[in-house]
Design a protein that fits this description.
alpha/beta; Rossmann fold; 2 domains; seven-stranded parallel β-sheet
Length: 319
């Protein structure tokens, strides 16, 4: 009887279209789930017969309570080599091997600029108006050249976003708690003296920080109040870094020019969620890492991880 592998949250049928599963087809039955399962009991029921689970990024938490309800589970594969929603101690205690895959930071850099440019030039509003027979030209675009781009975080993704900003002729500044002037100089940007000063000075603010105790709620009501009324906020990092209620209030009260958001406190975003109808918000359903190249890597290396596990020599083990 073949082992059963369940692929979670395969919204686009990418797992079977972009990866070759033939190396394990004689020993593994692959089942893909296209709808997100949020309830733990429902998820446990769907995975009850799974020996192997492939989960995409951090969409589905695997706490100790869920792992304990999956006695058949032996191999858990997560895309990327960092996952904060898996209880590794519980996995080890239940004999579950956890593996990851490579993941490119290029797609979230590109989506950051798609959101920023879409906001600055009113692309969605103007395109919808043109297609719907509405007014010919409604918006006056915001310029990038000569304007200030403020980056919260200057790591792998933030530094690449900075390079694009510099190519547009923008003044780029950056801040994070431990960012040094040497690192800023290395990237070719200016070190902001403080988070607050970066917010005051910037025409565009983009978030590129890992979520942790220091960054959770980093941008709350007081911080968002520092932004210019003509400023735009972009967040393709983690939802909890920006206070969602404070952002909604700023948008509704016309205190900032707009926001581009790819991450949310609850995903998928419920149908009636206020962010779905917030003014001046360009929102995408957590597409930052979702690209053909990344999905090919995720699922292709998932197959490799299964092969290695079955051979008794697991690879890319986490944490």
């Amino acid at each position: 009887m073949p082992l059963r592998c369940v692929v979670l949250d395969d919204y686009q049928n990418a797992a079977t279209e972009l990866a070759d599963w033939s190396p394990v087809e004689d020993t593994v039955e692959v089942v893909t789930l296209h709808e997100h399962l949020d309830d733990e009991a429902e998820l446990a029921a769907a995975l009850a017969s799974a020996d192997i689970v492939v989960t995409l990024r951090e969409r589905v938490p695997f706490p100790a309570s869920l792992i304990a309800r999956l006695p058949r589970l032996k191999l858990l594969i997560a895309s990327g080599m960092r996952n904060t929603v898996i209880d590794y101690a519980a996995a080890k205690a239940h004999g579950v091997t956890v593996c990851g895959t490579a993941s490119s930071s290029t797609p979230p850099v590109e989506l950051t600029w798609a959101l920023l440019l879409g906001l600055a030039r009113g692309v969605v509003e103007e395109a919808n108006s043109l297609r719907g027979g509405g007014p010919w030209q409604q918006t006056v675009g915001a310029d990038l050249h000569g304007r200030t781009l403020g980056l919260l975080g200057l790591g792998k993704i933030g530094s690449r976003v900075a390079q694009v900003g510099l190519a547009f002729g923008m003044r780029v500044t950056a801040w994070s708690q431990h960012l040094t002037e040497e690192r800023a100089d290395e990237v070719g940007v200016q070190l902001a003296p403080s988070k607050e000063q970066l917010l005051v000075d910037s025409d565009f603010v983009s978030v590129h920080l890992a979520l942790g105790d220091r960054t959770r709620g980093l941008l709350g009501p007081a911080e968002l109040a520092l932004l210019k009324p003509t400023a735009y906020l972009i967040n393709t990092s983690r939802a909890a870094i920006v206070d969602q209620d404070a952002l909604l209030a700023a948008l509704r009260e016309d205190r900032i020019a707009g926001a581009g958001i790819d991450v949310f406190d609850t995903e998928p975003l419920p149908a009636g969620h206020p962010l779905r109808t917030a003014p001046r918000l360009l929102a995408t359903p957590h597409l930052g890492y979702v690209s053909r190249a990344n999905c090919t890597t995720y699922y292709g290396q998932a197959v490799e991880n299964i092969q290695a596990y079955l051979a008794g020599s697991p690879v890319r083990q986490l944490p």
